[in-house]
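Journal club prep, notes for RB
We'll compare a predicted complex against what the paper describes. Inputs for the iron/sulfur cluster case:
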Amino acid sequence: MKVLLIYYTGTYNTRFLTDRLAERFENMNYSVDKAEINSEAPTVQTDGYDYIGFGYPIYGFNTPHPFMEYFKKLRFARGQKYFIYKNSGETFAMNNASSRKILRKMDRAGARFCGEYHFVMPYNIHFEFDENFIKQIMCEDKKLLDIMFYNLSGKIAPEIKSKLIYNVGAFFVGIQSIGGNVNSFFYRVDKDKCNRCGLCAKNCPRKNVSLKDGKVRFGHSCDMCMRCSFYCPQKAIKIGFLQGWQVNKYYDLEKLWNSAAPAEPYITENSSGFYKCFIKTFNDIDMRYSQISAETK
Ligand SMILES: Cc1cc2nc3c(=O)[nH]c(=O)nc-3n(C[C@H](O)[C@H](O)[C@H](O)COP(=O)(O)O)c2cc1C
Ligand code: SF4
Ligand code: SF4
C-alpha cells in the first residue's frame, strides 16, 4: 500500500503535520512518499498510489499560490483516491472555501474524494499564541488525526461545506498571489540587528533572498510565507505592509505535541472575541472523537 503526501509549507507547521500523518500511515504498513513544494521541486508522478493527500496552510482563506501552481501541473488517474489536510490559525467559516479549486479539478479528473480535514496550528502572522492554547490545539489535532484514520479505513469521507458567500469572499481576499511580490518591495533588514548568518537566504523556498557584499537582498518573487522573518534569530527583517502582524517565534511543536492537555482548558464555552470560533470546532471534534472511541471499544 502506498501513499503520497503533497504539501506546501511556509513556517513548517504543515511539514510538522505531514510528518505526523506519515507516521500514522507507516504504522499501518504503508510506504509513504512526501513531496514538499518549493521553487526547485520536480513535478511528482501520481500514479500507483492508493491515496494522495494534499496538505497546505490557508493563506487569506485560499490555498497558497505556489501550491496551486504546482497542483495545476499534476495529472491524476480516474478513481484516484485523495484527501485534503489543511491547517490555519483560526477557524472562521470563510476558511471553509479554501479547497474549492482542488475539489473542482479532482472532480473533473474523476478522482475519488476521501475527506477533508482542517487542523488548527499556531498562527505564523497576526500574533503569538499562548503555550497553553497550543497544547489544547495539539490535543484536538491528535483527536482529529484519529478521526481521519478511522474514516479512511471505514471509507467515510467528510466534506467541509462552504457557501457561495464564503467562496465569493475568499475569491476577493485571494491577494497573496500578487501580494507577496508587491510586498517584497518593502522588505527591509535592520543592519544593526542582522548578524549575516544567512539563514533567511538559505531557507527561502523561492530563492528570493540572497546575501551579497554582507547585505541581505530581497528579489520580487515572494510567496509571503513568512519563513525568513519568522525564523530570523535577530528579528531583523521588516515585512512591509504586514509588519504590524509579524510573528518571530520558534514553537517547539514536537514538545508541545507530546505534552499533556493544559490543566485548565484555554478555550471554554465562555471564550469570546477571536477565540470564539474554536468553541464549535473543538466541540465538533470532541463529539466525533467520543463516537468513534465508543465504536472501537
Ligand atoms: C500570508 C498568510 C495568510 C494567512 N491567512 C490565513 C487565513 O486566512 N486564515 C487563517 O486561519 N490563517 C491564516 N494564516 C496563518 C497560517 O495558515 C498558519 O499559521 C499555518 O499554520 C502556517 O503553516 P506553515 O507553517 O506550514 O506555513 C496565514 C498566514 C500567512 C503567512
Ligand atoms: S536570518 Fe536575520 S540575522 Fe540572519 S542574515 Fe537573515 S536577516 Fe540577518
Ligand atoms: S522572501 Fe521570505 S516571505 Fe518571501 S518567499 Fe522567501 S522566505 Fe518566504
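Talking point for the session: Residues 189 and 237 are 5 Å apart (CA to CA).
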